TrEMBL record:
Belongs to the cytochrome P450 family. GO terms for molecular function: heme binding; iron ion binding; monooxygenase activity; oxidoreductase activity, acting on paired donors, with incorporation or reduction of molecular oxygen. The keyword Heme applies. Keywords: Heme, Iron, Metal-binding, Monooxygenase, Oxidoreductase. Its cofactor is heme. Heme binds at residue 464. This is Cytochrome P450. InterPro entries: Cyt_P450, Cyt_P450_CS, Cyt_P450_E_grp-I, Cyt_P450_sf. It holds the Pfam family p450. It comes from Lactuca sativa (Garden lettuce). Transmembrane segments: none annotated.
């Protein structure tokens, strides 16, 4: 049987650590699986069949054969079963799409049908039960929250008004790196704290809540966000066998609750603090339009009963989305980009020459320079192509049975769009494994997936609404790090680009590098 190799599989670990509980619960599983088998057998009667897929075991399905590097395994499976294939994990049907043509059917022609997420237990635990934007089903609450996010949180006006926060934080980062010249720096930590500080200034910059102001808040946030992302990427036996969920065999649900409690305490203290300070001020003293932070905008919408409004849980769920979706993703991209650029000395030289020409060695990078940095932009896009931060985008689930590529896709199954495979498919990309930014100078690709050969932020109605901020931040941080400093690996280190699969595709080993001064004028670092 193809692909049946459970060496180093996730399943063998779960089995060895939880043998007793699993044995006890096996009868519940059998019942569920028999029911689903009966349900799915009806697809072969009459309508188009389910997509092809590997044969698998009774009860557990394909579960024991999933490898840790799921993105690579799915490429092998596509080679065997074709551009659309399916497999069962326990009772749950999963479908994987591996070509831009079929992705187009999902996110264009049938976008409305494929607008649900089918969140895992971990995802529900991280999002106040799916009451946020990321994990909510496509319903009126989701539409409302997404509208608030696009029109109020990341509107052009707000993005413009918050440029001072980005400038302040990027400058602090330059100063901070300057103070560490000659020593080893973890790029991911630097990128994360810059991103997190920008987001917190934009979101609750005017807070006086002690927790949010404490010096270790950034580190706490980084730890919690990283834990949330790891837990969301973990295969959880409770998702595969819902009848076992009460046992929480891997402790994913418990652990996620702990992480969310941590964030919730911080959000609660910030919201309470703001409500109290608002009540002490007259309405007019809260600030004029341009100066309101996001929290203020959300709290005003909370009081509003008509047009668009939001409740307290949704405010916290939205804050959680911004903090987790906005930090982990951009941090991952910046680390990959630095790793690729440092490994390719010609590319580093071209990026720095462009910076010299546009910014000048007697100046530091400003946001106004960014639209002119075309080679850097192409380098970032090439990084997204080879290292899509969210390799399977986020799961989609059809709200009704439908047909894709001549096969039936049943209502409620989980569908993955395999961006990792599409981004390195030789049918769409010449020399796909070569890191070559020039391909993005020759052909224009946007970030909203207009061309589905390249869609690192997804596409369609559930595509990433954070693109305008992400685009600015990743360009600004990378341009600043590469213009203000030269970089080398710490002694004894070798270049390494190995991946660690999860809901985000991280670099397996952190990129530890040593900065040196590049700009002649020392005052540019102060
Ligand atoms: C490198 C940076 C980022 C990447 C690669 C990224 C990627 C993604 C992807 C692939 C999706 C799913 C799209 C789909 O299903 O079609 C998504 C959704 C989302 N992202 Fe991002 N993102 C990034 C930055 C951000 C930022 C900065 C924010 C907010 C400040 C953000 C907020 C969201 C939200 C709220 C959703 C859910 C949208 C929905 O379900 O309607 N993201 N992102």
């Amino acid at each position: 049987m193809a692909q049946l190799n459970n060496q180093g599989s996730w399943w063998s670990e779960v089995m060895s650590s939880n043998r007793n509980e699993l044995t006890l619960a096996i009868s519940a599983i059998i019942f569920t699986v028999l029911w689903y088998r009966w349900k799915f057998s009806s697809y072969s009667n009459g309508g188009p069949p389910l997509p092809p897929g590997p044969r698998s075991l009774p009860i557990v399905g394909y579960l024991p054969f999933l490898s840790r590097d799921l993105h690579k395994q799915f490429v092998n499976m596509a080679n065997t079963y074709g551009p659309i294939f399916q497999f069962h994990l326990g009772s749950k049907l999963h479908v994987v799409i591996n070509t831009p043509e079929l992705a187009k059917v999902v996110v264009r022609e049938k976008d409305e049908i494929f607008a649900n997420r089918n969140p895992t237990i971990a995802a529900l635990g991280s999002s106040y039960g799916g009451r946020d934007i990321v994990w909510s089903d496509s319903n009126s609450d989701w539409r409302n929250l997404r509208k608030i996010f696009v029109q109020e949180v990341l509107s052009n006006k707000n993005l413009e008004a918050s440029s001072c926060f980005r400038r302040d934080e990027v400058r602090k980062t330059i100063k901070n790196v300057y103070n560490k010249i000659g020593t080893s720096i973890n790029i991911s930590e630097i990128a994360f704290s810059t991103e997190a500080n920008v987001l917190t200034s934009m979101v609750w910059g005017n807070t006086s809540a002690e927790k949010a102001k404490s010096s270790n808040f950034g580190a706490e946030l980084q730890m919690v966000s990283a834990n949330i992302v790891v837990l969301m990427g973990q295969l959880n036996v409770s998702d595969v066998f819902p009848s076992l969920a009460w046992l929480d065999l891997q402790g994913v649900e418990r652990n996620m609750k702990r992480q969310l409690n941590h964030l919730d305490q911080i959000f609660t203290s910030i919201i309470d603090d703001r409500i109290e300070s608002n009540s002490k001020k007259s309405k007019h003293a809260v600030g004029n339009e341009g100066k309101k932070d996001v929290l203020q905008v959300l709290l005003e919408l909370m009081d509003q009963k008509d047009v668009i409004s939001i409740n307290r849980t949704q405010v916290k769920a939205l804050l959680q989305d911004i903090m987790v979706a906005g930090t982990e993703t951009s941090t991952t991209l910046i680390e990959w980009a630095m790793a690729e650029i440092m490994q390719n000395s010609d590319i580093l030289k071209r990026v720095q020459e462009e910076l010299e020409e546009i910014v000048g060695l007697d100046n530091i990078v400003e946001e106004s320079h960014l639209p002119k940095l075309q080679y850097l932009e192409a380098t970032i896009k090439e990084t997204f192509r080879l290292h899509p931060v969210v390799p399977f985008i986020l799961p989609r689930s059809p709200s009704q049975d439908c047909i894709v590529g001549g096969y039936t896709i049943p209502k409620g199954c989980t569908l993955f769009l395999n961006a990792w495979a599409i981004h390195r498919d030789p049918r769409y990309w010449e020399n796909p494994l070569e890191f070559n930014p020039d391909r993005f100078l020759r052909n224009k690709y946007d970030y909203i997936g207009s061309n589905l050969n390249f869609f690192p932020f997804g596409s369609g109605r559930r595509s990433c609404p954070g693109v305008p901020l992400a685009e600015k931040m990743q360009m600004y941080i990378l341009a600043s790090l590469l213009h203000s400093f030269d970089w080398s690996l710490q002694e004894g280190e070798v270049y390494d680009l190995s991946e660690k699969f999860g809901i985000t595709l991280r670099k397996r080993e952190p990129l530890i590098v040593v900065p040196s001064q590049r700009l002649p004028n020392q005052s540019l670092y102060m």
